Amino acid sequence: MPTPLIQPSFTGGELSPSLHSRVDLSKYSVSLKTCRNFYVQAHGGVSNRPGTQFIAETKTSSKKSRLIPFEFNTEQTYVLEFGDLYMRVFKDGGQVLSGGSAVEITTPFTSAQVDDLQFTQSADVMTICHSSHAPREVARSSHTSWTLTTISFGASLSAPTGVSVSAQNYDATLDNRSHEYAVTAVDTVTGAESLASSTSSVTNNSLSETRTNTTTWSAVTGADRYNVYKKKGGILAFVGASDTTTFVDDNIDPDTADTAPTNRTIFNATGTYPSTVSYFQQRLAFAQSDNAPQTVWLSQTGNYHNFNVSTPLRDDDGITFTIAAQQVNEIRHMMPLANLVILTSGGEWLMRSADGVLTPVSIVMEPQGYRGANEVPPLLIGNTILYIQSKGSIVRDLSYTLESDSYTGNDLTVLATHLFEGKQVTSWAFAQAPHSVIWAVLSDGSLSALTYMREHEVWGWSRHDTDGTYESVCSVSEGSEDAVYFIVNRTIGGVTKRYVERLHTRVFSDVADAFFVDSGLSYDGTHTGSTTMTLSGGTTWLHGENITLTASASTFVAGDVGNAFVLTIGVETLRCKVTAYTSGTVVTVQAARDVPTAFRSVATSTWSKAVDELSGLGHLEGKSVSILADGNAEAQLTVASGAITLTNPASKIHVGLPIQSDFETLSVEHPKSTIQGKVKSIAKVNLKVKDTRGGRVGPNFERMNEFKQRAYEAYGEPTALRTGDIEVTLPSDWNRLGSVCYRQDDPLPVTILAVIPEITIGH
After folding, report:
1. Three-state DSSP class for residue 20
2. Counting beta carbons within 10 angstroms of the beta carbon of residue 408, is it exposed (0 to 12), middle (13 to 18) or buried (19 or more)?
3. Could you give the CA distance from residue 67 to residue 728 in angstroms, rounded to a whole number?
4. CA gap 294, 345 in Å, rounded
């Protein structure tokens, strides 16, 4: 008697072959043997990966480039392509153009350097670091206007000029003393303070209410207050502030704990340029130069380009400190949480303030572990850091735990080590919406995906491939989803091409909108204007009769013969194939069925144009492509002269490289007693699916059966997506594995929620 055994979840993802016998693991019952071009959904099911939309070829296909996200807010987001000495811009699935040409700026970064760029962003300004270049800022002033400038460090306000001091009520018979003053300019909104002016001195007696010194100076643009300093004990100490350009000293005691800022020369030569950057507690933080690999520099509070200090130090001065460790391990990343988490090549450190507010004298450094991180920037997901260990093949998470009062985490690759053996993660990005997936590019050009929801203990890996190799990935928010962009290296006609491609959304209501091809393009003939179409001249109005189709504005061309127009009135549609061309407003057509009364001599503005030739595919010249035409999977065709010709015209067409998606369960296990090692047969399997169409099922990928799909659709309509149960009879097979395999070769969606095989157990 066959026994049904359900696997209701696949949140463990693809399990390493070395763990295929570990039926004792809790993850075994929710994992897979193969999860290729499928990805794990957080609620437990798996879905085949959508395709990628072709956007543009990179500027220089012969050289590597990199994608970096630029996000001003959730609505104004861009993807920046950094290549050999240039930067280009993409937005909302297209390349940003100006006057028909790609928006581009010149950079000093070579193709060999772009992978090592580190960056952070505040509003419309991104700060970029590389150890071979002075720090720079990318700034956006409009959709098409971008600049890259070298940062000028120091005070943003000019020091006051024209400083002079005059004495009031000087008495030559009394003591003579020299009084020396300097002035700084202050912007009270930003807190920025200039360097001190040149000093000016005057001779006077000891000061009093009546015997005073008056200092004057010239106004400074951008300043709304001025600080006045007086020399005492050889240093310029604070004596007061003024909202005007005049200050009177009537025997004010200088505060030697508050001195004038002094200039620092910083990041001005080879060997001193920082390699990583972040923001923390209203300070801009740089770290790790060639000459000082364990040093961190933080700006003045609120003055991001000012690293100046005073003597003695003030709370808002710039900060410099060096990690004291047993080994010299370069700082590779700084991640701002409640404290600043610093990742080095040899360990993880926590920088905090002894009293909660970061000052030059309150820094406390605490080691959190000694695993080390590699050069790929970590990901910040909620309050958890995901980073790659120093060797590049282990992914870890890191977050604060109350139990240990420290930052700790897990090895997230331990159950899928086969995906990373002999490889390193070279680029990755997190797409939170809609499925919380991390897309990771590996050094061999393959792609792995990690579905990660720490709060629900969900983390499962899957692997992905394409006709080519992945080289870079980034993610930005676009609409209701996080859009994922790739640079993919493809060989077209024997020539290396690097394309910027965007992972297509998987959200659609009509199967005709399903996009499951790589490097693909779409044709949509849906009419959105006011032009109407009217059928007339019918005698019998039967299928096959020549009738007239008239457009209210010039629409038709001679090349439309063989194409079709699909008219819609209410819930009914009628397909009309063009048999003869008369003019831009009149053609002869034949309806695909008897013409309903509702369409006879009735104008409609709801229509679409169906074509049988699709051009503009030169980026896939010579490639075999998969096609979804009006929701129907067509036979593969080869692109020639940048075009393909379909057997039948279609109004919605998606064309691109084929994607093969494979799903395979682990050897089935009985919950009461093990059946590993016993021969078994699965005669039938029940699949619980959602919005699914197509595919084949079998005990292995060599012996597979298709299942009935079409059921209640009207003639001419595409097969509907299936949600519910699909029962499939498998080819007869006895083996010791008891696996269920599912393969999707067509450009159609598949989501599997559960697998229920009916198993007969032998001896």
Report:
1. coil
2. middle
3. 44
4. 10
Cα→Cα distances 495→486, 489, 592, 657, Å: 19, 10, 44, 17
- Per-residue pLDDT of 254-281, as tens digits, reads 999 899 998 888 999 999 999 999 999 9
CA distances from 349 to 120, 331, 342, 371, 401 (A): 20, 10, 5, 11, 15
Rounded CA separation 567/551 (Å): 12
Tokens of 592: 């695909």
Residues 701-755: tens digit of each pLDDT: 999 988 877 666 565 678 889 999 999 988 878 877 889 999 999 999 999 999 9
Is residue 749 within 8 Å of 703, Cβ to Cβ?
no
Q: Is the pLDDT of residue 416 over 70?
A: yes
pLDDT of residue 310: 86
pLDDT in tens, 139-150: 999 999 999 999
Token readout for 469 is 């190799």
From CA 514, how far away is CA 699, in angstroms rounded? 28
Please name the residue that has the structure tokens 């990771």. 440
pLDDT in tens, 342-384: 999 999 999 988 887 899 989 999 999 999 999 999 999 999 9
Q: How far apart are CA 666 and CA 12, in angstroms?
A: 11
87 beta partners: 82, 105
d(CA 317, CA 297): 11
Q: What is the pLDDT of residue 325?
A: 78
Residue 140: how many other CB atoms lie within 10 Å: 19
Q: 626: which 2 tokens?
A: 């998969």
Q: What is the pLDDT of residue 716?
A: 63
- Give me the pLDDT at residue 313, please: 86
Asked whether 258 and 284 are in contact (CB, 8 A), the reply is no
448 close to 459: Cβ distance less than 8 angstroms:
no
DSSP 8-state class, residue 419: G
The H-or-E segment that residue 622 falls in is none
Token reading at 528? 């959105």
Q: Round the CA-based radius of gyration of the chain to a whole number and report it.
A: 35
Report the alpha-carbon distance of residue 227 to residue 373 in Å, rounded.
Answer: 45
Cα gap 586→196, rounded to integer Å:
82
> Tokens 């015209």, residue?
649
Contact indicator for 85, 486 with CB cutoff of 8 Å: no
Checking if the pLDDT of 176 tops 60, the result is: yes
Work out the widest C-alpha separation in the chain, in whole angstroms: 127
* Amino acid 677: pLDDT: 73
Complete DSSP assignment for 338-376: SSEEEEESS-EEEEEETTSS--TT-EEEEEEES--B-SS
Length of the chain: 763
Residue 95, both tokens: 């390349």
Output the CA–CA distances (angstroms, integers) from residue 395 to 77, 181, 225, 417, in the order listed: 27, 58, 51, 10
Phi-psi region of 154 (alpha: psi -120 to 50; beta: other; left: phi over 0): left
